[in-house]
């Protein structure tokens, strides 16, 4: 039946999805994709104005949306976000952790507290959100109401590759994110819960918009970067849509502990 109706493997309509960092570059992509696919959404972000904007956009697409102005800053906040999904919609099927941060500085110019802040935002908070979601998803499986769940973290090509310009905190945090994905993929695999990550390279967002401009600086930076990208271009938000829908849907049921590089071949060469 699945092979004769393959599009049904990607059907997530009616499922309940929680997205942290929903006002950020990847979080907004996730919100739009899952709203368009028919999910009920819990959107969490620290920027109230940006959160309101993406929540309104998703509602205009026909999605049911609960918007919460908070970050997954500690155990209580993470548990509360999952509890809100249960209160609003009765459960949790999909978690996308799109919250995080980066601070760029050479090692001797970076304060230890800055390194700690990046690790906390990208690693500890991802772990806490996965912990909170896994508890709810396992309870649903035990109750017989669900067959599993989908946890999607956001990594980066920098989890695999270094960078010469002050990325020690970011690279370390994304390598640790990859480790969480692999360990939880093994731990939660028997329960039917899958844990995977999308690892982009540079893609178009408010933070990277300058790299797409027709300036001499942008051209130089772009040329150096594209010399390593077999596809010969930078990423677009649409390039993240397919991988996310795959990892959030039944189509990826046999994939767990996997880092999916959305990078135009950057990490292959």
Topology:
Elements: E1 16-20, H1 25-36, E2 40-45, H2 48-60, E3 65-69, H3 75-89, E4 94-97, H4 112-143, E5 149-154, H5 168-188, E6 193-200, H6 216-226, H7 238-248, E7 258-262
Parallel strand pairs: 1-2, 1-4, 2-3, 4-5, 5-6, 6-7
Molecular structure report:
This protein is α/β, with parallel strands linked by helices and 269 residues long. The protein has 2 domains: 6-200 and 238-262, NAD(P)-binding Rossmann-like Domain (Rossmann fold), CATH 3.40.50; 207-234, no CATH class. Helix content is 43%, strand content 14%. The protein is built from 7 helices and 7 strands. The protein has helices spanning 25-36, 48-60, 75-89, 112-143, 168-188, 216-226, 238-248; strands at residues 16-20, 40-45, 65-69, 94-97, 149-154, 193-200, 258-262. Strands 3-2-1-4-5-6-7 form a 7-stranded parallel beta sheet, with helices on both faces. α1 (25-36) links the parallel β1 (16-20) and β2 (40-45). α3 (75-89) runs parallel beside α4 and α4 (112-143) packs parallel to α5. The protein is globular.
């Amino acid at each position: 039946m699945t092979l004769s109706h393959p599009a049904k493997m990607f059907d997530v309509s009616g499922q309940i999805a929680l997205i942290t960092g929903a006002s950020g570059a990847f979080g907004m992509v996730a919100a739009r994709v899952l709203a368009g696919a028919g999910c009920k959404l819990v959107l969490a972000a620290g920027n109230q104005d940006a959160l309101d904007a993406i929540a309104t956009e998703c509602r205009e697409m026909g999605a049911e949306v609960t918007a919460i102005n908070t970050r997954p800053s500690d155990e209580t906040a993470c548990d509360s976000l999952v509890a809100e999904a249960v209160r609003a919609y009765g459960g949790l099927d999909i978690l996308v952790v799109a919250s995080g941060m980066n601070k760029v500085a050479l090692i001797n110019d970076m304060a230890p507290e800055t390194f700690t802040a990046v690790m906390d935002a990208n690693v500890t908070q991802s772990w806490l959100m996965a912990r909170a979601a896994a508890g709810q998803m396992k309870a649903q499986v035990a109750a017989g109401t669900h067959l599993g769940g989908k946890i999607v973290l956001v990594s980066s090509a920098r989890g695999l590759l270094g960078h010469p310009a002050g990325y020690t905190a970011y690279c370390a945090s994304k390598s640790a994110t990859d480790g969480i994905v692999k360990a939880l993929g093994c731990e939660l695999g028997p329960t039917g819960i899958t844990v995977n990550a999308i690892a982009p390279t540079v893609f178009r967002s408010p933070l990277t918009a300058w790299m797409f401009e027709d300036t001499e600086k942008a051209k130089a930076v772009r040329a150096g970067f594209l010399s390593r990208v077999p596809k010969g271009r930078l990423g677009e938000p649409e390039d993240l849509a397919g991988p996310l829908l795959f990892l959030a849907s039944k189509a990826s049921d046999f994939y767990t502990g996997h880092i999916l590089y959305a990078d135009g071949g950057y990490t292959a060469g």
